[in-house]
Amino acid sequence: DPPSLSLSVTLDGLDLFWFHFPGSRWNSGVPGLPPWPSELETPQEILPESQICREILREFGPRLQQLLPEARGLPVVSVLPALPPVPGEPNWLLCVVQNIFPPALEISWGSAGAAAPIPGPFEPAADGSFQRVARLSLLPRPGDVHACRVTARNCSIVEYWGEKKLGVFGEFF
């Protein structure tokens, strides 16, 4: 997708205000919040700056398209065992996260008695994005369900691993 024009003021991930470019006005992102102070970043100050950004993108965007990595959408998360699971035998559960850019995210596990994940480093991929693997030590037991939570700047993704409801132990999804 082509870059989109947006401007917002946030606090701890909460969108306090956002600028509506077509209407050339600030909007509140939180009900009941007082209006944007008129002396701060007026539309007359913002619109010329946004025009400069558009011109820079138009001029340099095509030249840098194949040279610089860019955000490629949401990370892709997969959870799988390191070895075929056998009840009561030690194993590792791997949370493989691909399509990461920029290389900044947190990985955590959700399950009864789960230890802290052991994250690996961010590794570069051939397409300019990054990937990362986090592993969790476990003793597989019937009924186990584990969740790998990936939290990036703009999203949270949860991928589950565990015993299927129907079938015998050892059939995992």
TrEMBL record:
Superkingdom as given in the UniProt entry: Eukaryota
GO biological process: antigen processing and presentation; immune response
Keywords annotated in UniProt: Membrane, Transmembrane, Transmembrane helix
Annotated localization: Membrane
Membrane topology: Single-pass type I membrane protein
Sequence ranges assigned to domain Ig-like in this UniProt record: 75-158
InterPro entries: Ig-like_dom, Ig-like_dom_sf, Ig-like_fold, Ig_C1-set, MHC/Immunoglobulin, MHC_II_a/b_N
GO cellular component, one term: MHC class II protein complex
Keyword Membrane: yes
PANTHER family: HLA CLASS II HISTOCOMPATIBILITY ANTIGEN, DM ALPHA CHAIN, MHC CLASS II-RELATED
The protein's name in its UniProt record: DMA protein
